[in-house]
Each structure stands twice: as C-alpha cells, then as structure tokens.
Specification:
Number of strands: 16
Protein name: Glyoxalase family protein
Organism: Prauserella marina
Order of helices and strands: EHEEEEHEEEEHEEEEHEEEH
Structural class: alpha+beta
Pfam family, one: Glyoxalase
Distance between the termini: 46 Å
Number of domains: 1
Length: 321
C-alpha cells in the first residue's frame, strides 16, 4: 500500500439521551464538547464531538445520541473498547473521581507495560484509561472537575473484536499501512508509524463471542487520519483498484471522509486532518451553538424544533466566553 495513516482520527459511537451524554463526557470524563451539530445523514439527531481544547485529530470521541435508542450488543465485528491516554500515576485519582461520580470501574490491570482502568459510560459503552509508560506530550483540556495534571490527553487505542484475525489483519496492514507490534495470547497489537498513544489498535480474537449489534452503547465506526484531501483522493483510488468497496468522498464540514468495512465487520473511515472545528466559530466558543453545514442551514428552524433541548455544562467554556 502506498499510503499509511499516522494514527486514529476519531471514534464515533451511538448514545442515548444527549443531555446525559454531554454531562458525562464533559463533567465526568473532562473532555471538551468542541462541536454541537447534527448527523448530516439524519439531521433529526445531534452529532456531538468531544476532544481536547480545539478537537485535534486523535483526541476525538463523537456520538449520535438518540434519546430512545435501544441498547446494542457488544460483540465481534465491532470496536469493543475505546481507550484514552492519561498521565502515569493518575489512575488512582481517576478511580476515586469515577467513584465520586457514581461510575463503577475495574481494578487497575497491567498489560504491555501499561496500566489500564476500564469502565462504562451511562449507555454501556466500554471505555478505558491507559497510562503509557513513555508518557503522552499532548496538552490536556483542564476543567474544575478534572485538572490538567490528571486529564485525558487524547485517544490511546481501540480494540477490534473479531471471530478470526487473518482478513482483518490484512486490512490493517495493507489498506491502512499499520505494522504488527506484538502478540499477547489472543490479542494482536498494530501500530501506525512508531505507535504510542493515538496510534495503536488491538485485534482481539474471540471466536465464541456473539456477533455485535450496533445501537446505543456501541461503536459505530473508527476513523483513521489522512493529512490532506489530495492524499485521501489518491488513497481512495488505490483502495478501489485493490477491490475494496469504498464510498465516495463525503463532506463532513470539519473534515472529508471515505468509508469501508473491514472483513471482520467493523466500519472504518479515513478522515482528513483539515479544515478543523474552528472554521465556523471561535476557539473559545466551540460547542456552544448548534452549527449546521450550508446545505442544511435553510432548514434550521425545523431541525432545531425536532432536536431535544441540550444545556451545555459550564465546564466546557472558559469563564466569560
């Protein structure tokens, strides 16, 4: 493959009540809601983007939250764990913080020389906080509830659960340009570039697990980074030439996207790093207002009437912003 991703761009999941979703990810997890918009393919629901201060690629977890969405089933053919990077020696603080917020977390376990704490969001989405021994230089979003010294630095990795690994591994290495890093029993790690937080994926082989069902509490797709639009155009052409069934390029306003499904069942995306989230509102005001793309703006009144009320937690924006 001529093209190699530099790492994760974002993970998109299905949520339930949007207010509960925002309260959890802004207040409990300490992320910033960097964009309040709608699902461009179904504008009757929000699309909420959480990340660092500016929503840089590699920090983002996004949601399509439907208030009455049925619960999904976690299983093969999905990304089953979304992990975030936190500083070393922070997991004790996080365990106490999550307990104070009424969130039950696992004991801290060590795997691949990394300490990991696992828990679920209010809809059952499996999340993990991982302290990478070499650290993570990315700047945190600092809030009164989650101070910068302990705060999330960005995505750490995702885990893809499959019934067999061969075809999925082929997609990761041949279509995304990842490289095999290590094996731990039925878990295989792959790196983008040199690896490290935000540039890793684990393939977990669970042949006896049920097939996953995408609904509330599950991941919808995993997006990987492309540096610019021309790279994405050329990358898509090469995928098509290789026989991959890939979508046309879609304008997501804050990046451009193509989608294809790996043989194990997980929907993958290649998304451009640009133009980013500050193209339609100032950095200090990210997330505060409902933003619509130009082609949906004429329908703003109807769209706003169909969406449930969403009160953005005060931690999301600096005082006076």
């Amino acid at each position: 493959m001529s093209f190699r991703t530099s790492g994760l761009h974002h993970v998109t999941a299905i949520g339930g009540d949007p207010q509960r979703n925002a309260d959890f990810y802004v207040r409990t997890l300490g992320l910033r809601l960097v964009k309040t918009t709608v699902n461009f393919d179904d504008p009757g629901t929000y699309h909420l983007y959480y990340g660092d201060e500016s929503g840089r690629p590699g920090t983002l977890l996004t949601f399509f939250p439907w208030k009455d969405a049925p619960s999904g089933r976690i299983g093969t053919g999905q990304a089953t764990t979304t992990a975030f990077s936190v500083p070393e020696r922070s997991l004790g603080w996080w365990r106490d913080h999550l307990a104070a917020q009424g969130v039950e977390a696992s004991d801290v376990v060590t795997r691949d020389n990394e300490e990991t704490l696992t828990f679920r969001d209010p809809d059952g989405l499996v999340l993990a906080l991982v302290a990478h021994p070499q650290g993570d230089p990315r700047d945190p979003w600092d809030t009164p509830l989650v101070p910068g010294e302990h705060a999330v630095r960005g995505l750490h990795s995702v885990t893809l659960s499959v019934s067999r690994e061969d075809a999925t591994v082929g997609t990761l290495t041949e279509d995304l340009g990842l490289s095999f890093a290590e094996e731990d029993g039925n878990r295989f790690r792959f790196n983008a570039g040199e690896g490290g937080p935000g540039a890793m994926v684990d393939v977990l082989v669970t042949p006896d697990a049920p097939r996953g069902l995408v609904a509330a509490g599950t991941v919808h797709h995993v997006a990987w980074r492309a540096p610019d639009e021309q790279t994405q155009v050329d990358w898509r052409s090469e995928l098509v030439d290789r026989g991959v069934s890939v979508t046309s390029i879609m304008d997501r306003q804050y990046f451009r996207s193509i989608y294809f499904r790996e043989p194990g069942g997980t929907l993958l995306e290649i998304a451009t790093d640009q133009p980013g989230f500050s193209i339609d509102e100032p950095l200090l005001e990210l997330g505060k207002a409902l933003k619509l793309p130009p082609w949906l703006e004429p329908n703003r009144e109807q769209i706003e009437a169909a969406l449930p009320k969403l009160d953005l937690p005060s931690e999301n924006n600096p005082a006076g912003a």
